């Protein structure tokens, strides 16, 4: 019984925050999204048709892009390091300290069981935290940058954009 | 096994084939044969659909049959697979999914080759992707073989082999006609069936023990014949240091391998945006995580209710623990409940295998046509030619099916562990370097792939898996040189090292504009297909 509830709850719990915030994020400008899109070169500015490489270099140097990249890395680097170390510690402990791992905690449940289930729990938590971080702190700014970049590169020829314009403007659903 | 199992299981199984056949014809009606359509299903799946499809692709026979079997035989040591298979998804979610969706079009090589000399990189990654796919397919076919052996117990070996071959061939046909769209729907149907089956069995196990997990574990430990040791690490991978290093090697291969699996990476192209790719991974982590929690219950349940000895006598590697558990839970051999439940579970397991075969066959045919064929032939051909090649290349599935018949005595989860080790050694270093390292060069990419692929494959060939021990593939001969069964501990660092070495020794100047372009694309999705 317990497991069945867990199965559905996990799916719903992990996905639910998405809907709630994608609505908030798209509707109105929150401070973070705006701050991040500051330095983007606007599509309206007049300039003598730059090449695709120049446009990408320019976007790459812009404050808005650097902010998106910084936010991504600041979350991902420590998080990836943390879960890899925690997982490695778990695997190494299972091989080098079987005595510790076999120590009973409650009834037949021992330290090894708790550690294994702890891995499941941390995975679910980190998934939730990452999705939330990306949704609230990155998505909007990244999307703005995407439109701006595509606006600038429009008309430069098919070598630049793999997909033709209308394809990429489709929403996330069907 | 008695006749009514077989009849019912075969009926259910035929129903699954009929449904998938219907799906294939339905979704491929009025479809033009474009590459976008064949490889990526038109890129219009929703995150939830794709999340189920990813889960379907990932929860292979290894998960359902192999892990539960290992837990039933070795107790806690089998749990490592559950944990590793799940934690691996964090690598995919955090480092790979969104960036790959933004940078590539159809295959892994698209991402890496974007800012390199295209041909050598494509050839290298195409080769490694096909190798991983074939190894993974072999594992699936071993699972199929165990199931068929259990279902058609009284028949001859030849008949069993032909059943496996025939059914595998059918999946190859599906892929070559239906492409990604049909494959995705097959995965979704299968994921729902598999989750349903796992939930039902888990509930039955827990009801049998009146929700008392403690008594489940205690009974499992008693009936395993190992007592308390059954619930602690060390039964399979304890003892000498070789076995312990094997455990660590396996653990590393599992956690790093998923992000290098071609058939998983190609799933991210079936959704329209990177956001959607991330959401599909979140869905699939939810599904996969709950599924693996259930396999733990099923594994200990099989040990407690069937008994480790009986599981081993049915299939030495434990691959048939779950169907046997179903038989006992339904009321035992001869009872109606037991017969029905056994048939349902066997049919689900078979459906699982077939769906995964379809997914991997598609990914490997994409690697052959889009990477190998396209880079070895003159440029400027029509798209049509490539898709036609992909349809024919689905025949790779047939090769793997034949290989799978050779390896019937190995555990499915264990074989998949090997595929993961190769994926983590050959594909992951090139992928991570190209996404995160500014100075990564063509030579670095090519070296990273071969520097991981060759050691991984060679180490498997000279490992105890292939020769030199009674349980190996060729027990008669002995050319074993490498003590570990899983090569990951050595070959994964070698892959990363080779990539680094190739990059620092090459004279190629890092192209700043190309790097800027790929970074902007990766993080914003500008110009994404």
TrEMBL record, chain A:
Pfam families: DUF485
Biased composition (Low complexity): 163-174
Region (Disordered): 24-50, 154-174
InterPro entries: DUF485
Keywords: Membrane, Transmembrane, Transmembrane helix
Coiled-coil zones: none
Residues that span the membrane, as ranges: 75-93, 105-131
Protein name: Membrane protein
Organism: Streptomyces microflavus
UniProtKB/TrEMBL annotation, chain B:
MF terms (GO), sorted A to Z: acetate transmembrane transporter activity; symporter activity
Recorded topology in the membrane: Multi-pass membrane protein
Organism whose genome encodes this protein: Streptomyces microflavus
PROSITE patterns on file: NA_SOLUT_SYMP_3
Subcellular location: Cell membrane
TM annotation in the entry: 6-27, 52-74, 80-100, 121-139, 159-177, 189-209, 247-269, 281-306, 340-363, 384-406, 412-433, 445-466, 486-504
Protein name: Cation acetate symporter
Pfam family for this entry, one: SSF
Lineage: Bacteria, Bacillati, Actinomycetota, Actinomycetes, Kitasatosporales
């Amino acid at each position: 019984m317990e497991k069945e509830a867990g199965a559905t709850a996990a799916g719903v719990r992990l996905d639910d925050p998405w809907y709630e915030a994608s609505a908030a994020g798209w509707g109105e400008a929150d401070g973070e999204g705006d701050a991040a899109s500051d330095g983007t070169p606007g599509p309206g500015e007049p300039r003598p048709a730059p090449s695709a490489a120049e446009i990408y270099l320019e976007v790459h140097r812009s404050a808005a892009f650097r902010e998106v990249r910084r936010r991504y890395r600041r979350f991902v680097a420590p998080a990836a390091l943390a879960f890899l170390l925690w997982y490695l510690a778990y695997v190494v402990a299972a091989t080098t300290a079987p005595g510790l791992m076999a120590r009973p905690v409650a009834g037949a449940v021992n330290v090894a069981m708790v550690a294994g289930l702890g891995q499941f729990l941390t995975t679910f938590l980190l998934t939730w935290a990452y999705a939330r971080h990306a949704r609230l702190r990155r998505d909007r700014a990244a999307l703005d940058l995407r439109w701006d970049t595509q606006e600038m590169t429009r008309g430069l020829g098919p070598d630049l954009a793999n997909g033709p314009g209308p394809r990429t403007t489709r929403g996330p659903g069907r | 096994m008695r006749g009514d199992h077989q009849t019912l299981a075969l009926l259910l199984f035929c129903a699954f084939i009929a449904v998938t056949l219907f799906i294939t014809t339905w979704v491929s009606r009025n479809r033009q044969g474009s590459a976008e359509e064949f490889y990526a299903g038109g890129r219009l799946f929703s995150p939830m659909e794709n999340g189920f499809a990813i889960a379907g692709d990932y929860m292979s026979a290894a998960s359902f049959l192999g892990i539960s079997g290992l837990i039933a035989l070795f107790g806690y040591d089998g749990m490592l697979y559950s944990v590793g298979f799940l934690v691996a998804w964090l690598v995919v979610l955090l480092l790979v999914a969104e960036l790959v969706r933004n940078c590539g079009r159809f295959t892994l090589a698209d991402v890496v080759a974007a800012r390199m000399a295209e041909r050598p990189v494509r050839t290298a990654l195409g080769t490694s992707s096909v190798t991983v796919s074939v190894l993974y397919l072999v594992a699936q076919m071993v699972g199929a073989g165990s199931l068929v052996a259990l279902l058609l117990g009284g028949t001859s070996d030849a008949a069993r082999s032909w059943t496996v071959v025939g059914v595998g061939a059918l999946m190859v046909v599906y892929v070559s006609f239906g492409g990604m769209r049909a494959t995705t729907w097959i995965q979704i149907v299968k994921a729902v069936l598999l989750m349903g089956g796992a939930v039902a069995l888990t509930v039955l196990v827990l009801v049998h023990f009146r929700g008392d997990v403690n008594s489940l574990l205690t009974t499992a430990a008693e009936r395993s014949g190992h007592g308390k040791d059954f619930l602690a690490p060390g039964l399979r991978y304890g003892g000498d240091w070789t076995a312990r290093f094997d455990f660590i090697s396996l653990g590393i291969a599992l956690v790093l391998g998923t992000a290098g699996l071609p058939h998983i990476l190609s799933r991210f192209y079936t959704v329209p945006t990177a956001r959607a790719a991330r959401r599909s991974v979140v869905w699939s982590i939810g599904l996969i995580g709950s599924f693996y929690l259930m396999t733990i219950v099923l594994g200990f349940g099989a040990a407690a209710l069937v008994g480790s000895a009986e599981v081993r006598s049915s299939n030495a590697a434990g691959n048939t623990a779950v169907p046997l558990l179903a038989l006992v839970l339904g009321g035992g051999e001869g009872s109606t409940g037991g017969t029905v439940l056994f048939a349902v579970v066997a049919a689900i397991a078979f459906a699982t295998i077939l769906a995964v075969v379809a997914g991997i066959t598609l990914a490997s045919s994409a690697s052959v046509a889009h990477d190998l064929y396209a880079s070895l032939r003159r440029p400027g051909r029509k798209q049509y030619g490539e898709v036609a090649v992909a349809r024919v290349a689905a025949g790779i599935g047939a090769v793997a099916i034949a290989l799978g018949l050779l390896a019937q005595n190995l555990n499915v989860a264990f074989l998949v562990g090997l595929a993961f080790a190769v994926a983590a050694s050959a594909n992951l270093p090139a992928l991570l370097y190209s996404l995160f390292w500014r100075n990564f060069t063509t030579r670095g990419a090519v070296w990273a792939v071969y520097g991981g692929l060759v050691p991984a494959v060679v180490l498997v060939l000279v490992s105890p898996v292939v020769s030199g021990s009674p349980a190996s593939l060729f027990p008669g001969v002995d050319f074993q040189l490498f003590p570990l069964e899983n090569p990951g501990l050595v070959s994964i660092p070698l892959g990363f090292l080779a990539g680094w070495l190739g990059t620092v020794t090459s004279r190629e100047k890092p192209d700043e504009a190309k790097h800027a372009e790929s970074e902007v694309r990766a993080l914003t999705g500008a110009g994404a297909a």
